[in-house]
């Protein structure tokens, strides 16, 4: 890497997104991307990466490591035959393996050497809690002492009585006019061009610029459907469902949702009149991939367009697990598809999903590389997807479903969209 290329990477790292030239991918540092939505605060690295991967993956040695081990009786390895779904998953993996490897090699050669300089904890090594530390059930849910558990609060009979009070982003300024609004089942808009603070009792939550959110269960999501004119709908939707998962359920990490309820999400009704780009986060389980492609997208009226891959790395640049590990790949999938325009004919035959100016440049098998955040926190996709929304004459109208944090200028819905907005996650700029 020459000096000029190095300087470009340094600048791009400051902004949070580095293009991996010629390798159909980018590296993203999510904290710096999120910071652009606030005017007086920054996200704390140590809170975003509180379970971060700050050591390299220790690869198993193939040699003899213990003296005398050759004299022990070795257990004969059982031959495991893959079932049908596992065979399909392995075939998918082999199709993208070389693409992921190529992007990762380019990342290691260009970005990785400078990475540690841009993720800092202010010199405090005690900011990353030990994973062996015992946790209460609230902490297992990722909820720290002093924070509001919105899921439990919404289940109380007093839920309709809870309110937010709002003030401008300068938290300690008592002269600002404040307003109040119900906490649950109410669309809350922050039209301010500066960040605001929402207070609930002693808890304070920082709202990014010009954001909108709705805290509710799935039965109330219809409140976001545009009334009358669907040109008030959304042309970019990011959906991160709490997929059913035995491990998540066993550890009580977060509430999950049966797949059948996802079929009833009003995605088509939420869309803009000129169509929408839909991005769906999904795990590597073949059962879920098959469900999304054959049932979920058709139920929503979405036509598949591309698949992206989120490759998780450590701060040293290594993958968080071996690439070919059978049941724990170091990447997750993002399925991308388009909803057709509601203007004129809406039959599938009359809609051009490929070849048009809006869709032709949406890359397939695109690799997004980043260090994973805490509690299944996904990297923000706004800056990467906004250029691919249908109808370039329209401004971006973004919606995140099952959100756990807010985005500037976007609408967020879920049962805990303020999960990562507590002031504990920020520091004054």
Automatic annotation (TrEMBL):
GO MF term (any one): methyltransferase activity
InterPro entries listed in its UniProt record: MT-A70-like
A Pfam family hit: MT-A70
Domain of life: Eukaryota
Family: Belongs to the MT-A70-like family.
UniProt name for this protein: Methyltransferase-like protein 2
Organism in which the protein naturally occurs: Physcomitrium patens
Phylogenetic lineage: Eukaryota, Viridiplantae, Streptophyta, Embryophyta, Bryophyta
